[in-house]
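Intended use. Records like the one below are meant for learning the mapping from a protein sequence to its folded structure. Do not use them to infer anything beyond what is encoded.
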Amino acid sequence: MKRVAVIAAGIALSWLANAHALETVRVELEKLPQERVFDAMVEAVKQSTVSSQLVGRVVEVNYDVDDFVPKDAVLVRFRDSEQRARVQQAEAALKEAQARQKEAGEEYLRVKDIYGRKLVPKADMDKAEAARASAQARVDSAQAKLAEAQELLAHTVVKAPFAGYVTERHVEVGETVNVGQPLMTGFSYQYLRATTQIPQAFVAEVREFAQARVVLKEGISLASESMRVFPYADPKTHAFEVRVGFSSNEQVIYPGMFVKVAFVTGEAQRLLLPVSAVVHRSELTAVYILKDGQVSLRQVLVGREHDGRYEILAGLDAGEVVALDPIAAGIQLKQGR
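Structure written out for the chain above:
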């Protein structure tokens, strides 16, 4: 009988020693951002429609709707025989003007030398100087015409202003287009923003803290990279438009999608607990509490995650001790029973 009591006492002491060996954390209140959440729509920051800069016939269209286009890739090419001919004419005119300029310069130096020896009147010197200036003006004019011709030739090749996807194609090969006629529309996935309307009651706090996150779905959110609050309210709704810039971060996000934006509007005291300490069993969410050397399981209500820690909304009070290893705590609870 005495031996049984000794064994039982040994088991109890062993269990108490193990209970004390459990790794624990004391739950304390911490300051956390207080947020207001609003519905928003995703927009592409970089979206544009490229248009024709000349009257011409389309000979090449390299991309279609839903195609990815690298930056500076050729979208559309026009027939360019006329523009190339103008460039050649301008180049020839420039060479002729440069030759005239060289001749006038040499004549000017010759007359200047003779004039310095008092062998020719000043009228001849003035004439040589005017001829040199005129030749320089013709060179400048020829260079300007060449630049203009090269610019027209460059307009026969339409390139993508940024990398992105084609959303609309407005022309086909063989069409003759006019100046300003749309050719192709696209946008970039790299630069996105979420646009929302916030009531005037929250504008001051949103401006003050200037922090937000774009919520895609439960557990997935992206930090804002920029924020722009419009300086005026809509006269009908009295709401302010806010644009929150963000990077897609390899998440599948498309312009036109609905998301939510959580704006920081203040701070609040919250209980935080490491995610690893929380037990999820079917519909039960609980933690193991240590009190007076005893282990017990208690149901809790958790909020969103903050850097690997859950926000505890109900079920715990500040100062309580929680086991960090639910498995070890569960084993000890069974042994205690």
